[in-house]
Amino acid sequence: MSKPVVLIVMDGIGVGRSEFGDAVKAANTPTLDSLFAEHPFTILKAHGTAAGLPSDDDMGNSEVGHNALGCGQIYSQGAKLVNESISDGRMFATDSWRQITENCLINNSVLHFIGLLSDGNVHSNIQHLKDMLTRAKADGLSCARIHILLDGRDVPATSALEYVDDLEMHLSSLNDGSFNGAIASGGGRMKITMDRYQANWDMVKLGWQTHVLGLGRRFPNAAEAITAYRKESDVVDQDLPPFVIERDGAPAGTIEENDSVVLFNFRGDRAIEISMAFEYAEFDHFEREKYPKIVYAGMLQYDGDLKLPSRFLVPPPDIRDTLSELLVKAKIKQFAISETQKYGHVTYFWNGNRSGKFSEELEDYVEIPSDRVSFDERPWMKCAEITDAFILAINSGKYSFLRCNFPNGDMVGHTGNYPATVIGVEAVDLCIGRIMKAVKACGGILIVTADHGNADDMLEKTKSGGYAPKTAHSLNPVPFVIYDPSGRHEIRSGDYGLANVAPTIASLLGQDPPVSWEKSMI
Q1: What is the rounded CA–CA span in Å between residue 348 and residue 304?
Q2: Is 62 a catalytic residue?
Q3: What integer pLDDT is reported at residue 304 of this predicted model?
Q4: What digits encode the pLDDT tens for the residues 127-180?
Q5: Given this model, what pLDDT does residue 1 score?
Q6: CA-CA distance, 448 to 425, in Å (whole number)?
Q7: Which one of 26, 53, 209, 293 is least enclosed by Cβ atoms within 10 Å?
Q8: Predicted model pTM
Q9: 2, 34, 62, 118: which one is catalytic?
Q10: How far apart are CA 418 and CA 416, in angstroms?
Q11: Is residue 275 very low, low, confident or very high in pLDDT (cuts 50, 70, 90)?
C-alpha cells in the first residue's frame, strides 16, 4: 500500500464521565474536538477483562494496553496470571520457588522480598506478597525481610500507611518462635529502585544502597518513616525518600551472601534494571560496593529476549501473532517512536514483550530522550521533538505503518498536578494537529486512540467533603477515531476494546488478520 496508516497513542487520555477532575475536558483541544465530532469515532474498553486483567474493577495500564493494541488478542495478564498460579499451586511447584527456598534452608539464610506495596494490580499486589510469606513459613523458612516500595500512583496518593498496617498485621500473625518476618527498608517508587528504560540509573543505585547495603536514614518502623517524611517534605507516597529500619543499632535486613531475593512485581518495565543489578556479574551502571552471591527470582521473566531474570516464578503470557509479525511477513515497512518514558511501550510491549525487532530491515525505531525532572515541571515533555521526527518519517515515504506514543496524559497525570496535566493534554492536541496535516498531504489515514485513562480522572472526593489529587489510572474508556480525508471508511456499531485496534489497522493495510484475533472495527 503506497499510502501510510499512522497511529497515535495518547497515553493516559481517556473519555471521562463527568466534568469533575477531568483535565482532558478542561483543556483547550480544538484538534481532538474536531476529530471526534467530524470523523468516524467510537470508544474502546481499556481496562479489566478487555485487557486480560482479573475483573472490571482493575484499571488498565500501559503495559497490558500496548500488549492488546499490538497483538489483537486478549491474554491473561499481570495480576490475573499470578492469581491463577498461586490459587492452583503452580507457583510453589516451580523449580524457581524450590531453589529460592532450598537455598535459605540449606544456608540458614534470609528470604528477601522487594516490590511495590499496594493492591493497584498494575505492578504488584500485596496479597501475592502475603501468600508467599505464608508459604515460606509453611516450607520451613525461619526469616524473611521485606523491602517496600511505596505506591501512591496506582492507588490513592497518600495511602501507604494502609498497606504498611496490612502487612504488619500479616507478619504479626506469622511471627512466632519458628519464623520472623519484618520490613527492612523502603521508599517511594519514583525515588528508588523502579526506574525504567534506563532513564535514571541513580534511582536504582539509591535502591541498591537502601535494600542491599542498608544505607540511609534509619527509623524504628516504616510507619514512623512515612509519617516523618510527610511532615518534613509534604510529598505524596511515590516521592517519599528512602528509609532503613533499625534493630538493635543496625539495619534490620541487609542482603547478604547466600540469601534469596524475590522481586514480587509482575510488570516488566520497572523491574528490569534492578534485576540487571542483581543478576549481571558484569555491570557498569553504578558501583555496587558489594555484590553478594544470592539466589534471585522475579515474579515473571521481565524480558524474554534478555532472559532476565533467569529464574522466575510465573511464566509470562506467550503472546504470538502480533501485528508487527503480520506486517513483517507481508514485507510492510514500519516505524515506531516515543520518548524514553514510553519508548518500550511502542516497541517491547507492542511486540508481545520482546525487546528485539522481528526484522532489522523492515522496522525502524526512534527514542527521544526524556527530561529527567518531575513531569509537571515540563508538562509538554518531548511531544514537539517526537512530532518533528514523526513527520519526517511520514514525509519520507519509506513506511506504510507508523506509530507513536505521546506520554503526557499519563506521566504528567501521575504527578497529581491538575493544571500541569491540562497543559500536557493541550500540547498533545497541538502536535496531533501538525501530524494530521502531514497525513493529509501524503494521502494517508490517521488513527488516534489511547491505552488507558488517567488525565480524565484526576480528583477524588474525600471523606471530609473536599477533594484530593488522584494519581492513578482511571476506569474510563478511551477514544478511537479514524481520520481519512477520502472518507472511505466507517466504524461498524459494536462494543470494542483495545484488542480490536490491530485487526482494524491490518484491514486498512489490506492484510487478513489471523483467526485468533478480535474483529476489525471497519
Answers
A1: 10
A2: yes
A3: 66
A4: 999 999 999 999 999 999 999 999 999 999 999 999 999 999 999 999 998 999
A5: 47
A6: 14
A7: 293
A8: 0.77
A9: 62
A10: 6
A11: very high
Do 501 and 449 form a contact (C-beta atoms < 8 A)?
Answer: yes
All domains of the chain in start order, with CATH:
5-76+319-508 (3.40.720.10), 79-298 (3.40.1450.10)
Task: Tell me which DSSP letter residue 343 carries.
Answer: H
Q: What is the pLDDT of residues 403-418, one digit of tens each?
A: 999 999 999 999 999 9
- Look at the chain and count its residues: 522
C-alpha cell at 403: 506509530
Query: What does the radius of gyration of the chain's CA atoms come to, in whole angstroms?
Result: 23
Q: Distance between CA 297 and CA 205 in Å, rounded?
A: 19
Q: What is the secondary structure of 179-214 as a DSSP string?
A: BEEEEEEEEETTTSS---TTS-HHHHHHHHHHHTS-
- C-alpha cell at position 161: 500507611
Instruction: Fill in the DSSP letter of residue 486.
Output: T
For residues 459 and 157, the answer to whether their CB atoms sit within 8 Å is no
The set of cell numbers assigned to 171 is: 507478619
pLDDT, one tens digit per residue, over 304-325 is 667 899 999 998 778 999 999 9
Are the beta carbons of 21 and 420 closer than 8 angstroms?
no
Cα of 265 vs its chain's centroid, Å: 11
Q: Measuring CA to CA, which residue among 205, 169, 153, 161 is closest to residue 375? A: 153
Alpha-carbon distance 332 to 349, whole Å? 20
Q: Assign 409 to helix, strand or coil.
A: helix
Higher pLDDT, 130 or 468: 130
DSSP states of 443-463: T-EEEEE-SSBSTT--EEE-T
State the average pLDDT over residues 424-434. 98
Task: Determine which helix (DSSP H) or strand (DSSP E) holds 45, and give its type and residue range.
Answer: strand 41-45
Give yes or no for a contact between 307 and 314, defined as CB atoms under 8 angstroms apart.
no
Instruction: Find residue 219's DSSP bridge partners.
Output: 245
Handedness of CA 291, 292, 297, 298 (dihedral sign): negative
3-state SS assignment for residue 348:
helix
> Which CA distances in Å does 227 have to 153, 192, 235?
18, 18, 11
